[in-house]
Specification:
The structure holds 2 protein chains of 2 kinds. Chain A has 10 helices and 38 strands. Chain A is α+β, with helices and mostly antiparallel strands. Chain A has 3 domains: 237 residues, Immunoglobulin-like; 174 residues, Roll (C8orf32 fold); 207 residues, Jelly Rolls. The radius of gyration of chain A is 30 Å and the shape is globular. In chain B, the strands form 8 sheets. Chain B has an 8-stranded mixed β-sheet with strand order 5-4-8-2-1-10-13-12. In chain B, strands 25-26-24-23-29-33-32-31 form an 8-stranded mixed β-sheet. Chain B has a 5-stranded antiparallel β-sheet with strand order 20-19-18-21-22. The longest helix of chain B has 16 residues. The relative contact order of chain B is 0.08. Classes of the chains: A alpha+beta, B alpha+beta.
């Protein structure tokens, strides 16, 4: 123990001495590739003085090498009613490490931390943006924030994004000997050093040196799963309003239910009566729940108001009932209350929402700062249905790309439960199209396109469906690569069942789809979902990351052309079939009399594949783009 | 105190026709008919419609005899479904504060009600709760008052009213007649005592359907006292501007600011009366007034005078240079590289050019006023040209209005030529303005002569020329040769910007190769990447595997290997607003193909020639052959910056012609 303590002090001393050498030429050469910025030194401490007095101290110096590193020169320190900024300063050093400018608190802008969609948020931010014309330079910040809550602690992530290298970074947690800190180390090369400081406090320290910059590579897994990261959580916490303890999801879910949800379900008696009446004749509980959900959808809309603890706690159901609006928490809680009024139990579930990546709750580490959205889970005897209550149009039982296929926390009176939301497979996410065209000898086409959108694709036309008919007719032309489109009919139908489908019917004509020249007629075989060179992922040499495909999908097209009289095929017919672990593609065409039939099926399968597979992915998309741009040549007999 | 008669003639300059007094509609008398409305007959696709909208602005004294502008807003909106709940059911009112606790805008008397019919057909209502009105302090000067109407549901009608009280008489509330949803009727009533004179300006494509005015005698008195002093008093003009059946505004591509087309009325304070002396004071009514104002302004004239500050910096930059153009270029690049643009548009310098030079960062005003001063310090005649960026909207020509300008550039006169300069972007060559500045005319100011208009977009053009020389090899069925792309003028600037986004030119070439599909780049060369005044030249030695061998009777391929136009940018069948590209452009392809001896062309292309009306532009193709060498050329020219809605169908057809011509494959067959 004693030796360890000495060791820790020595390290700290070493760091203190080194901190003034911000000469850019001292950056180890092997940290430079792919780096736009290098974290020269970072020291973060979190000190729990008491459960309602936590001090978060950061000192960080970053050398900005070029324009791509500019983001690391910005600083945003958030605060609110429970969190205050105690000190804030900085300095700028030139390429040789000579201080050229001081940054004082007055240089920071004080702004409302508006998120762009909330009606009201009481968070504020102190923000600094630096514009320096000469690279490289070093920017150093030091600030301290005091917060009156110890519900959760921020993660430590020494390497915040791609393009940043780290020379040295450390994180120290200081607390009373009796305070139990829980933590989880992810991709961290070194383990915690524990010790005692001169005030007799317990310390836990992590240090990381010499992290190379990672490059941005297409089809990469989520940054959080690649980067070094430390997650922290208290076992016990308390402040003026709340206290509690948890070490697992069961306990945390129970605590949330008891403190944030239990007293929020009351509804006005008239509303309870109303929903009972509304569902009186319905015996199937699923149909009952659907009716309630649709009632909620027509009665409310999404408006976010985040005040104080409201960031965690929903507004009471009775308030939503009166105002007709609420955020995700309030709307889920309200729906849950309505369901309860007709005898159906449901769960309030915390989820990390996002379309680009499916992020799950970390199963063996319970903490309050996972998740950014709330959805509703309705367990039935044979299966379980899920719903997002913030959309007025989404079908009951359908989640979509925002929250599908990930582990979420259900907060129930029996305690927290980790559950997985439904996955939509490559085959489920189907865009199926049938088109029949007539091509005349001047190159004009006319015909019908019928399309079904299923699975995640159900939502593909959401924007256009929400528009007025004149706008729809205007905008649909951007979805199809057919010039001179004249829309005769455009109709949408939606089957809002648990496995919903969107149907699109399009009747159109387009002059000059084909070009005629000296007895030849040229036209592009694929008029509907053509990949172009812009859809091909970029080449990456020496790829580091595995290939990650977040979500699979399938496109199926069957297209026929009635060819003009007196013409015959004058090019080799297209016939291609590719089969890869991550996907498959077939495209064929045949001419029979005056009928040309073209079929195309593209399937991409979600999953993680070896990094060596990446070149195959590029080649695959190249082959698809080539085939999609196949030009049919017809010649006059 | 002077006699009131002196003030009387200062009535609003509009033609006054006395008529019945207009009146705001009554809050709360929502009819059953309005609640039962299922659609808006004039636009059945509308999700919501303004049933009525009424605004008034009054100028009054408050209890302490401070002059206040009171803007009152009142609207009634019908929702047919839930699609517009978020946009039209939520209100945001920005307010300004000088930060001195005495001068600030204040929102008062907010009222909001939602009306609907319950299941029994009875009219119910829900009131906006005061606790659900939020005030967010966005920054030092700006706050936003926000609220959402409660209990919105399909078919409901909402009604909202509030007052915005302001001490800023120069900032008279403007009024938007048009919105993203249609309006049955929209009325703005202004009530202005003769102590003040405002210019009113109507913008947009719609016309007023109602315009009346009334004079209210001696409506405002100042200085009267119980001691018998009569004070001065003024008549008030009560003017009503109204529009009925206003269609929803639908945005189109290639437009400048939406503000230029949206129907709205705005006001500018032109004259005020000193209430103590009765003297009328003209405010910026003529350009010479603006010239004077700017000359004395800290953020403008004072900065232009700082030539001595810049003399020391400029002297080493131009040392040894004799000709004026070389000096001007050196100074331009010096400012360009020494002050980084903070992406803020401003016609004036905010904290002075010294601070911008010291901190190496500044807004467009800081940078370009520093440039003007530096040029003058270097002995080059330069002026500051104020302008309005494309996103900021058009400039009023009826009368001078400083608020119209949000940007400034430099104009250097060298010999008998003038150069417009913007030092905010290190990639911009000397004498070129970025697209954001290409908006009609700017106003050139200098310290020693009257200001004048200058055209902003006459000198610029974007030009790309493609030169392909390809040989079909007999031995292996490969097409080999050179592709060259010359980007000139604005195109060179855009291309440099694109290349600089990559970490290296190698990465850019990789990107080009990828975009070329089957074409492999064997060798590449990029010239003049950093010589901003020169055309950017890209040259690629390429190879395309077309055939495995030459045992074919026919060889067909499309020679437009690079940047083939495949989609028509114009998709609407007709258009309401002009197409504004900012500058003329031309593009040409010259493609030369050499084929083996035994082949000849099977389908010599027909030459195409398509012109736009009034020499506005053209597309033509030409084909020539000489032995085994075939040359194709495609020329596209757009000679104007702006094309009217009437010219739109021709533009669209021109693109159609380009697409058709570039789609053709060339077929070569073995000689019989």
């Amino acid at each position: 123990m004693r030796i360890l303590l000495f060791f820790c002090l020595l390290l700290a001393g070493g760091a203190a001495m080194a901190q003034n050498s911000y000469d850019a030429s001292l950056i180890p050469r092997d940290l430079l590739p792919y780096a736009g910025a290098v974290v020269r030194s970072e020291e973060i401490t979190t000190e729990v003085k008491s459960p309602d007095n936590v001090i978060y101290h950061v000192k960080r110096a970053v050398t900005i090498l070029n324009k791509n590193g500019d983001a690391e020169a910005n600083l945003a320190v958030f605060y609110d009613k429970t969190t205050s900024v105690r000190s804030l300063k900085g300095a700028i050093y030139d390429e040789f490490g000579k201080a050229t400018q001081k940054i004082s608190p007055g240089d920071f802008e004080d702004l409302a931390a508006t998120d762009g969609f909330s009606l009201f948020v009481d968070d504020r931010v102190k923000h600094y943006t630096r514009a320096v014309t000469q690279y490289p330079y070093t920017i150093e910040f030091e600030y301290e924030v005091k917060t009156r809550q110890s519900f959760y602690f921020h993660d430590w992530m020494p390497n915040p994004r791609s393009g940043v290298a780290v020379e040295k970074s450390s994180y120290q947690f200081i607390c009373d000997p009796g305070f139990n800190l829980r933590y989880k180390e992810i991709n961290l090369p070194s383990k915690a050093e524990t010790g005692t400081n001169k005030d007799g406090k317990k310390t836990c320290t992590w240090t990381i040196n010499h992290l190379k910059a990672r490059r941005d590579e297409p089809f990469s897994p989520e940054w959080n799963s690649l980067a070094a990261r430390l997650m922290l959580a208290p076992e016990k916490f308390e402040d003026q309003n709340f206290s509690g303890s948890f070490t697992n999801w069961q306990q945390l879910g129970k605590w949330i239910n008891d403190h944030f949800l239990a007293d929020r379900e009351d509804l006005p008696p008239a509303t309870v009566e109303h929903v009972k009446e509304l569902t009186a004749g319905i015996t199937d509980p699923k149909q009952k729940a659907k009716k309630i959900f649709e009632y909620m959808q027509q009665k409310t809309h999404y408006i976010s108001v985040q005040v104080g603890i409201g960031g965690f706690r929903p507004f009471p159901a009775s308030e939503v009932d009166n105002d007709g609006y609420g955020d995700c928490k309030a709307l889920v809680n309200y729906t849950k209350a309505l369901l309860k009024a007709v005898g159906i139990d449901s769960y309030y579930c915390m989820v990390e929402a996002g379309e680009d990546y499916k992020v799950s709750f970390v199963s063996d580490f319970a903490s309050l700062n996972q998740g950014n959205h709330i959805i509703l889970c309705v367990p039935f005897k044979t299966d379980t249905l899920w719903s997002d209550c913030t959309s007025q149009t989404i079908p009951f039982g359908y989640l979509g790309a925002f929250t599908d296929d990930r582990v979420v926390l259900a907060c129930t009176p029996e305690g927290g439960k980790l559950l997985r939301t439904p996955r939509y497979s490559a085959a489920d996410n189907l865009e199926k199209r049938k088109a029949d065209f007539v091509l005349n000898d001047a190159g004009a086409i006319s015909g019908d396109i019928e399309t079904e959108f299923r699975g995640i694709d159900y939502d593909d036309r959401r924007r256009i469906i929400g528009e007025s008919q004149p706008d729809r007719v205007k905008d649909i032309k951007k979805y199809y690569p057919i010039n001179n489109m004249d829309i005769k009919v455009l109709e949408y139908k939606q089957d809002k069942s648990i496995l919903p489908v969107t149907f699109e019917t399009l009747k159109l004509s387009a002059r000059d789809y084909g070009a005629s020249n000296n007895g030849k007629l040229y036209f592009l075989l694929n008029p509907v979902d053509r990949y172009t060179e812009y859809g091909i992922p970029k080449l990456v040499r020496n790829r580091q990351n595995p290939v990650y495909i977040n979500r699979g999908w399938t496109e199926e097209d069957e297209i026929s052309y009635a060819l003009p009289k007196g013409y015959q095929l004058d090019s080799d017919p297209l016939n291609i079939s590719i089969e890869k672990p991550f996907g498959s593609f077939t495209a064929t065409m045949s001419v029979n009399g005056d009928k040309l039939i073209y079929t195309r099926k593209l399937q991409v399968k979600d999953g993680t594949y070896s990094k060596d597979m990446y070149q195959d992915v590029v080649d695959f998309y190249q082959a698809v783009a080539d085939a999609d741009n196949y030009n049919v040549v017809l010649a006059k007999n | 105190m002077t006699n009131m008669k002196r003030i009387l003639p200062l009535l609003i300059g509009t033609l006054l026709s006395v008529s019945a007094f207009a009146q705001d509609f009554t809050y709360g008398d929502v009819s059953s008919q309005e609640l039962d409305m299922k659609k808006y007959d004039k636009d059945t696709s509308a999700h919501a419609v303004f049933l009525n909208e009424y605004g008034t602005t009054h100028i009054n004294f408050d209890n302490d005899y401070n002059v206040k502008l009171t803007f009152r807003y009142h609207a009634r909106i019908k929702f047919f479904d839930n699609k517009e709940f978020e946009r039209q059911g939520t209100f945001e009112i920005p307010t300004y504060s000088s930060g001195d606790n005495d001068h600030y805008e204040e929102v008062q008397d907010v009222k909001g009600t939602t009306y609907f019919k319950d299941d029994n057909g009875n009219v119910q209502k829900e009131e906006l709760d005061k606790k659900n009105i939020f005030i967010t302090r966005n920054s030092k000067h700006w706050s936003t008052v926000k609220f959402a109407l409660p209990g919105l549901r399909k078919g409901c009608v909402i009604e909202v009213s509030y007052n915005l009280v302001s001490p800023y008489l120069f900032d008279f509330h403007s009024w938007d007649f048009q919105d993203d949803i249609p309006k049955v009727t929209s009325t703005y009533e202004v009530h202005i005592p003769g102590f003040w004179f405002y210019n009113a300006m109507l913008k947009g494509y719609l016309k007023l359907t109602r315009n009346t005015s009334n004079v209210e005698r001696a409506c405002m008195t100042y200085g009267a006292s119980s001691m018998g002093a009569t004070g001065i008093s003024a008549d008030c003009s009560d003017i009503v501007y109204g529009m009925d059946n206003i269609p929803a505004f639908i945005e189109e591509d290639f437009m400048t600011s939406k503000k230029n087309y949206l129907s709205a009325i705005s006001f500018q304070l032109a004259e005020r009366t000193d209430l103590n002396t009765g003297a009328k004071i003209k405010l910026t009514r003529e350009w010479k007034d603006i010239d004077k104002l700017l000359k004395d302004d800290y953020g403008f004239g004072s900065q232009l005078k700082r030539t001595s500050l810049l003399k020391d910096r400029v002297t080493p930059v131009i040392a040894g240079k004799t000709d004026e153009l070389a000096k001007a270029k050196a100074i331009y690049y010096y400012i360009n590289h020494n002050i980084k643009w903070d992406e803020q548009n401003n016609a004036l310098s905010e904290d002075g050019i010294k601070q911008a030079l010291d901190k190496h960062t500044g807004n467009s005003g800081d940078i370009n006023l520093a440039l003007v001063s530096a040029l003058n310090a270097g002995g080059i005649r330069a002026e500051a040209v104020l302008l309005s960026t494309r996103a900021h909207g058009n400039i009023t020509r009826l009368y001078p209005n400083l608020d119209d300008f949000n940007y400034v550039v430099a104009k250097a006169d060298i010999g008998d030529k003038s150069y417009l300069l913007d030092a905010t972007d290190p990639m911009l060559p000397f004498g070129m303005l970025p697209m954001r500045c290409l908006n009609d005319q700017g106003r050139a100011f200098s310290l020693d002569k009257p200001s004048d208009w200058v055209d902003l977009n006459t000198a610029q053009r974007q030009t790309t020329t493609y030169n392909f020389d390809l040989t079909l090899l007999q031995t292996d069925g490969k097409l080999k040769g050179t592709i060259k792309r010359f980007s000139v003028g604005y195109d060179a600037y855009l291309k440099r910007k694109e290349i600089k986004k990559f970490n290296s030119t190698d990465e850019y070439v990789e990107h080009v190769e990828q975009a070329l599909g089957k074409v492999k780049i064997l060798k590449s060369d990029i010239q003049n990447l950093d010589s901003l005044d020169m055309p950017l030249e890209e040259s690629y030695d390429v190879e395309v595997s077309l055939y495995n061998n030459m045992n074919h009777d026919k060889l067909a391929f499309n020679p437009v290997l690079m940047d083939q136009v495949k989609t028509n940018p114009f998709k609407l069948s007709e258009r309401d607003y002009p197409v504004d590209w900012g500058m003329p452009s031309d593009e040409r392809y010259i493609i030369t193909i050499h084929v083996p001896d035994q082949y000849t062309i099977e389908n010599p292309p027909q030459n195409v020639s398509f012109g736009l009306p009034n020499q506005g532009g053209r597309f033509l193709t030409d084909y020539q052959s000489e032995g085994n060498t075939f040359t194709f050329s495609y020329v596209t020219q757009f000679n104007k910056s702006v094309y009217s809605a009437e010219e739109y169908p021709y533009l669209k057809e021109l693109y159609n012609k380009i697409i058709l011509a570039e789609k053709n494959e060339m077929v070569f067959k073995k000689k019989g």
